[in-house]
Design a protein that fits this description.
By secondary structure, the protein is of the alpha/beta class. The chain is built from 11 helices and 8 strands. It has a single domain, classed as Aldolase class I (TIM Barrel, Alpha-Beta Barrel). The chain has an 8-stranded parallel β-barrel with strand order 1-2-3-4-5-6-7-8, surrounded by 8 helices. The longest helix has 20 residues.
Length: 248
């Protein structure tokens, strides 16, 4: 059954808009951790430090008892940060300075040696490693070759579908990629662009272990508060998930 990992990046985005001390993404993470059904906290430390800061990661590493998932680019400086702080999981993602948010999956097939080296470094530091990839067969196969334990399937195409038919096709592609990744022995996570309106159909796919969601939760929290926003997302995911088989 899929579990929610709450991404706190956009709490930090609001803080950094004024270079202030609030809202504190660490406080948001603590609130999320206390919400039943939350499996982890996700944060992306970018090379330009546009939102999450090193202090946030260091503080969370000491405070958070559930999974701490660090998203990072596969470059030397970020790998060194992960090695020094040792969060629970490292998720390798592509990164461009000009982008507003991550624009696509990591091209594992096109840079397999680079990714394999990054995976090995993170694993040597004790991290479980996931690769954020588009739901395509060549990327899944390449991900398996790197030795990573998990993949996070990019749900942007599904989330950004203009019509119901486009959304259905995108969900079918996610389902096919999920099945292939499971056959390859990979743990499967998913995320990017998931909201209260579209999460249920993805959460219903059997075999997804975690959903990483941030922006939609932070946006809703403006109107209902962070704890309620997190709880409502957990409830949507739990209602959508396929029932666990009964133990005989």
């Amino acid at each position: 059954m899929a579990k929610l990992c709450v991404n706190i990046d956009h709490v930090a985005t609001v803080r950094q808009a004024r270079r202030a001390i609030e809202p504190d993404p660490v406080y948001a993470a603590v609130i999320a951790e206390l919400c039943p059904g939350v499996a982890g906290i996700t944060l992306h430390v970018r090379e330009d430090r546009r939102h999450v800061q090193d202090r946030d990661l260091l503080t969370l590493r000491q405070l958070i008892k559930i999974k701490l998932n660090l998203e990072l680019a596969p470059v030397a400086a970020m790998l060194e940060l992960a090695e020094a702080t040792r969060p629970t999981q490292g998720t390798l993602v592509p990164e461009r300075r000009q982008e507003v948010t991550t624009e696509g999956g990591l091209d594992v097939a096109g840079q397999e040696a680079l990714i394999r080296n990054a995976v090995a470094r993170l694993q040597a530091a004790g991290l479980l490693v996931s690769l954020f990839i588009d739901p395509r067969s060549e990327q899944i196969k390449a991900a398996r070759q790197t030795g990573a334990e998990a993949v996070e399937l990019n749900t942007a195409a599904y989330a950004e579908s203009a019509t119901a038919e486009e959304q259905r096709r995108s969900r079918d592609l996610l389902a096919e990629a999920l099945q292939m990744a499971n056959r390859e022995g990979l743990i499967v996570h998913a995320g990017h662009g998931l909201t209260y309106r579209n999460v249920s159909a993805v959460a219903a796919l059997p075999g997804i272990e975690e959903l990483n969601i941030g922006h939609s939760i932070v946006a809703r929290s403006i109107f209902v508060g962070f704890e309620r926003a997190v709880t409502e997302m957990v409830q949507l995911i739990e209602r959508a998930c396929p029932a666990e088989p009964a133990i005989a």
